[in-house]
Amino acid sequence: MLCLNPVLNCSQLLSLCPSQCKPPRIIRTRTLTARLDSPRLCSTMSEEAFVTLATSDSYAKGAMVLGQSLKNHLTTRKLVALVGPHVTDCCIEALKSIFDEVCVVNVMDSGDTANLALMKRPDLGVTLTKLHCWTLTQYSKCVFMDADTMVLSNIDELFEREELSAAPDPGWPDCFNSGVFVFRPSNETHEKLLAFCSENGSFDGGDQGVLNSYFNTWATADISKHLPFIYNLSSIAIYSYLPAFKQYGHNAKVVHFLGQVKPWNYSYNAQKGEVKGHSVSQQPGHLHPDYLLLWWQLYAKTVAPLLQKAYGDTPFISGFVQHEEHEATSFHAAPAAPEPQRLSSEERKKRWEAGQIDYMGDDSFANIERKLNTFLK
Ligand SMILES: [Mn+2]
């Protein structure tokens, strides 16, 4: 009998080829060529970056998970976090260990046009903070990603797209969803956006309304600016077209936790590797929604230790449930956990559409899959 026993173990093999120990860093050919051919061009050539925004400490957690997910999938681009004035120093410190650049944005002191826009439309403070991404002119091109998104694979190919590229919004597909978009930083565009904002406001009260009104030819002018839906897969879309999710969902590259309840509103039992915070009547073998669990696994592994380091002895909301026997107490203590109750199908639909998704209960992945199977059989 032929027996294939390895002669060397893995670490011995790796010691023979130390270069294999490091994760591959891909050098962009374009930059390399420019460097070789024209050193002067190189000095003026800007870099590209992924940009996100955190307006609170909670969103900062999301931003950190997003940043870490981009790193885990070996992005070659820079990572930039814009933070609002309410984000605390500890969170900023933790953000700095993941992001190349952390810029505190206070619209109040970011120029005349911004101030004027804010005076006219005080409700658009967060939107104006987001629009600030256009001032990152040290970069030639950027991809903006909401702090409630997470990447599932490398998406550096998005930098081949032009401004303004984005995926359709699941609620109104002639509008793009502003959770993921490609843009070119430009002070001129920034000023125009601010002026537009103060004159016209936002039809939905947020940045998506402003951006869709400003880039108003997106729906019809250039199909190359339509990103495939897999670059911004929102949880809402899973329910609105279940068979499509079953067919294409495994190709998803970016997941977007759209709606009012965010991953950080749940809690997590790190010992058991389980997401907590909703239905207490879980069946045995209950299947967790993959994306929510993935978010928490990433948070527990890399983000929570950074926060712990930044906070030191100061207590902070980690989101972890410590002891199984105290689960009932923890459940009530979790601030965003809604009361468990039986809802009518109509009420559940309403809640889903309002973004209040019962990930761990009625809207759990197991239930979605069961429903899918009844359609497809
Ligand atoms: Mn979002």
UniProtKB/TrEMBL annotation:
Region described as Disordered: 329-349
UniProt entry tagged with the keyword Metal-binding: yes
Subcellular location per the Swiss-Prot or TrEMBL entry: Cytoplasm
Its EC number(s): 2.4.1.186
Keywords: Cytoplasm, Glycogen biosynthesis, Glycoprotein, Manganese, Metal-binding, Transferase
Catalytic activity: [1,4-alpha-D-glucosyl](n)-L-tyrosyl-[glycogenin] + UDP-alpha-D-glucose = [1,4-alpha-D-glucosyl](n+1)-L-tyrosyl-[glycogenin] + UDP + H(+); L-tyrosyl-[glycogenin] + UDP-alpha-D-glucose = alpha-D-glucosyl-L-tyrosyl-[glycogenin] + UDP + H(+)
Pathway: Glycan biosynthesis; glycogen biosynthesis
Classification via Pfam families: Glyco_transf_8 (PF01501)
Residues making up the signal peptide according to the UniProt record: none
Cofactor requirement: Mn(2+)
Keyword Ribonucleoprotein: no
Molecular function terms from GO: glycogenin glucosyltransferase activity; metal ion binding
A Gene Ontology term for the protein's cellular component: cytoplasm
Official protein name in the record: glycogenin glucosyltransferase
Organism this protein belongs to: Mugilogobius chulae (yellowstripe goby)
